[in-house]
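Hi, here's the filled form for the chain we discussed.

Project: internal
Contact: R.S.
Residues: 514
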Amino acid sequence: MKQTVSEGIIGIDVGTSVIKTVLYDRDGELICTVSETSTVQRPKSLWAECDMDDVWQKVASCLCRLVSSMDMSSSGISGIGITGQGDGTWLVDSSHRPVRPAVTWLDGRTGDAAARLHADGTAEELFKITGTSVNSSSQAVQLRWLKEHEPQSLKSAAASLRAKDWIFLKLTGVVSTDTSDASYTFFDIRKNCYDQRVLDLHGIADLAHLLPPASPPSSNIAELTPEAAAATGLPKGIPVVCGPFDVSACAIGVGAVSPGDGNTIFGTAGIHQIIIDDPPGPPENIGYTIAHGPEGTWLRLLPSKTGTLNVQWFVEQFYGSDAYDEDGKIAWKRIEDELQSIPVGSHGVLYHPYIDPSGERAPFVDPFARAQFSGVHLNHTRDTLLHAAFEGVVLSAMDCYAYLPFQPKEVRLSGGGSRSAFWSQMFADAVGSPVRHVMEKETGTKGAMISTGVALGWYDSYTQGVEQTCVPGKLFTPDSALKRDYEALLKIYRNTYEAMRPIWKQLHQFVSRQ
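And the returned structure, exactly as it came back:
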């Protein structure tokens, strides 16, 4: 039976693992959702790319299926909001066709180049302008790599976009980006505009023509073209709003829009952020500073490269058929219940969660960082090691929060990992702030929907939009005694990775010779 929609906004999230389309009503209630798995291609070691046409076809398919599930004879859809994965390089030519597969934020081919920028002091100079530490995910670093290794791609390119910008182009025919995506790579963060010095320092001054116009999310708006309407089943001419990108959209979707609000996203990556009303001072050359959706605010965030992937990888590799329930899904609740008796410190096992081949980016940048267990002996079990993997992700979060400007009064927790009460309580105990779930399954699309509602005048402000649409959920209160234990463990965690950094580089050099 089709669902009747009197007035709604569709949120699109062009995710790394999943593409989602979600229909919301004016009060933020989720009416319907359709998703498809997103495919990351790895044609070479360390590379991570997406077929841009495939991404568009999956978005269009999701929209068609969404439309078919509702009654469009009523007033229908008032607008579309788009968010998506940040960083990466999505090149299009003058005919708006992809030049090559998109280089995603997970791609590690620029690790050596990013390391050189830190070694010669260029990264410090860039941080003074952008407020963001250079890493291998940066579009600027990827453009420099393409300039050196694939100059023909850049000769064919007319614009360098991000994931959400590509879908906005396909829906509206407009080449643009928003200030959230452009700010942390190319902006003078204090002036909130492009700065030529950034291109000069990266050695890509000749590529300035590839940077699209950047507008605040709520004014980055255009109409759905007849061609896109035919491809999606939506009415032509409806407004489409692009931005902010996913970390900012998720913050909005959980209600983090005012200075002092905190948000952690336990997803593919581990995103730890706080809202500020003035670009930060020291510590320098750490993390990201991003223009947030609400104008006059910024996100100060430290994004560890991977989050939930660590425990998912471990369970899939070492639990086998024991991990799955009768429906063929991982039985996380049952597995986590078996870990409850294991104390802080996992009986002496320590895990560093640098599972992505491109290394780590916060609170330190090291393209050679690798995941590792230490302290293992024959009395330990796979449960012990899995508990340590959960703890390792939490210790990485603690490590990041130590570099944020101040301790948030409350952290809004989102992402796939937030569904685990076990992990949420561990996170609260370690970070030392109350942690609140938000009663929202899809925070990225929810943030895109609120931003679109602001653009369309549904809400007077982001604050009013959040108050009308976001429902707070369960609160996890930290245990101060366990906080002290985690602080002691964090010192060991840091000492271990600092000792390992030269060894990681040696291992990289060894493997590179093979």
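Let me know if anything looks off before we file it.
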